[in-house]
Here is the input.
Amino acid sequence: MLKYEHIANDIEWFIDNGHYQAGDKLPSVEELKVKYNVSKSTIIKSLAILEKEGTIFQARGSGIYVRNKKIDGYVNLLKTKGFSDNLQDHNISSLVIEFDEFIPEEAVRTHLKLNKNEKVIFIKRLRFLDNQILCIETSYFNKNIVPTLDKKIATQSIFSHIQKQLNINIGFSDIYFYVDFLNKNESQLLELNEGDPCMRHELIFHTNKGMPFDYSNIVYHFKNAKFFVPIQS
Here is the structure.
């Protein structure tokens, strides 16, 4: 974990443990810079994480303030490090439906910037939130960047493995989402009816150096999945 991530986690701990309440003003950037003995840019990166998570908001010319507590159980569409990070106070589990390794089709190669002979690790999972079906997740991982995935890891948090075991820093993601209808196979996996509505996500995750390592498609259970987007005006 990078220094600015440690600082963001530390500030969030103080908020979660009641040291600051909604509406309270946090120390300034300069004060935080002195407290943590880091550069101004490091503090700015830490605050950007907290702002993205909906933990704080910054009022220009006024200061940094604690936002209202997030409604529990909602998926933050701006967070990029997986459901386990997104929903830390909940039980996130996975059932691996397919696991394979192959040379992918052209569309996947394009998303991951792969050559024709380069392989991906393909994983299809059912994801559960507190034992309720949350979504179907289909992922293609660049084997050159993420070489050590196996079925056991796939039943847990893949992103945790990527960050802690492979020491890969996740940078940013491109997320596209739209409303659609379930096909027959999807409806069976989600235990819904064919033609029921769904939210679809197409995601491309990059390392902090800008290399795409994961191209995923997610189909959400329309009854069990709830979303929010923290917006700074």
Summary: The first strand starts at residue 56 and ends at 59. The chain is about 25% helix and 35% strand. The mean pLDDT is 90. Residues 64 and 97 are 45 Å apart (CA to CA).
